[in-house]
Amino acid sequence: MIQRIDSHQHFWRPARGDYAWLRADVPALAPLVRDFLPEHLAPLLQAHGIGRTVLVQAADSEAETDFMLELAAAHDVVGGVVGWVDLSRAESVASLERMAAHPKFKGVRPMLQDLPQDDWIAHAPHPDVLRAMVRLGLRFDALVTPRHLAPLLQFLREWPQLPVVIDHAAKPPVGSADGEVIAAWRRQMREIAALPQVCCKFSGLWTEAPPSMHRDADVVTYAVRPLWEHLLECFGPDRLMWGSDWPVLTLAGDYAGWIALSEACIGSLAPGEQAHVWHGTAQRFYNLPLHRENP
Fold first, then answer.
1. Residue 107: what are its φ and ψ, rounded to 5°?
2. Cα 136 to Cα 78, 86, 102, 129, 142, distances in angstroms
3. Is the full-model pTM beyond 0.90?
């Protein structure tokens, strides 16, 4: 079985109280309002040959980052943690320095898609905080949708020394009949991919499909394939990394189904190129060991 790294997964315990978006009164999200912890993911990782994961923040609080680092310290399969600090406050430099003392702290993700200003990333982050990220060798996960791509491109050009990965391919509208929206996404992703410090995650796309496509992996595969082909053309396999977006994935499909869909796309590549997408890019970008120390 090919070695794989899941470059994007979450754990949470809603009772902790800082997941503002995770609301039981929103029917579409209600299935997610329960504990999702290492013991729930472990059987899926074992079944599909996942040797490492990257645990990504789901709350805009430093307390959640500390919670994730505690889980990472206790579970060797978690190779890296992408946490949260308020990038707009100079005081966050001290937070970054504290977190970076943990060997599994790998980077920061502001929840850009939830902020009221689409161009927040272009003007709000404090330069001292960004310089600290570069100095500490940290990475930046960009949680964006197509409407954020223009200001994100401005940010990327101003900070070429900061390694950045686009989460979920910037969430294009999978299966959309709006050719204009898809054309704009294609153009802007190509512009972003021209910047060598940027990688992209092949993740999260099943849940971007309309509900009518959910639970039909064949239909979703047909809709995702042209998006995959564009990402491959723009970034190449050595700047694409696979991720599950579990447990958000469970709103639309399941882990095995996303693996199968991904194999249908990635499997057309040469073996060495497949290895980049399944584990090499994530391993290099996040500086992860591929294998667990204690199998």
1. 180, -170
2. 20, 16, 12, 10, 18
3. yes
